[in-house]
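Researcher: Next entry: Glutathione S-transferase (Massilia yuzhufengensis).
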Amino acid sequence: MKLIGSVTSPYVRKVRVVMAEKKLDFTLVLENVWAPETTIQAVNPLGKIPCLVMEDGSTLYDSRVIVEYLDTLTPVCKLLPTIKRERTEVKVWEALADGVIDAAITVFLERRERPPEQQSAKWIERQMGKVHAGLRVMSDKLGESPHCMGVHYTLADVAVGCTLGWLALRFPEIDWRGEYPNLARLFDKLSERASFRDTVPFAA
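Model: Predicted structure:
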């Protein structure tokens, strides 16, 4: 399998962490979807990463679709529960974590792509409100549990860890560590795992 993505994207990192936890072999093909010469639409008409190209040439896109498929390939480190209610709760965690990133990336791109005089302060405020609300709910839901779903490591932890890691990279001014020490404890615990150590994002 080939995973098309970048070393910065939190969505790509989520897939990479899952593949590492599942011990799946793949090749990471770096792609800058913002470059004029990008060919991403040849495999994903939406022009987004990650995109998983499988052995038969077929493709999967959207990180949530990809990781759900990957979890079916091997029983090693099952990340999605089989019980429907628990499985749905994990997916809610994933949607929450991805939603925080969706909003934060909107702000990041607004600031990067538009000159200051063209940026919408109202739009930025609205999106940052989503980021802070999402972090607050993640902290409330986590409570004092060792993992998002209690004692078991799941895809929920992967999604939250990737979100926090990206915020630390792109929005260091957000003091989620100081405001939500339980999220900091979870993130530090996750950062000890090889799958997280080997996929730390860096600015590109």
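Model: Note for the record: Strands lie at 2-5, 27-30, 51-53, 59-61.
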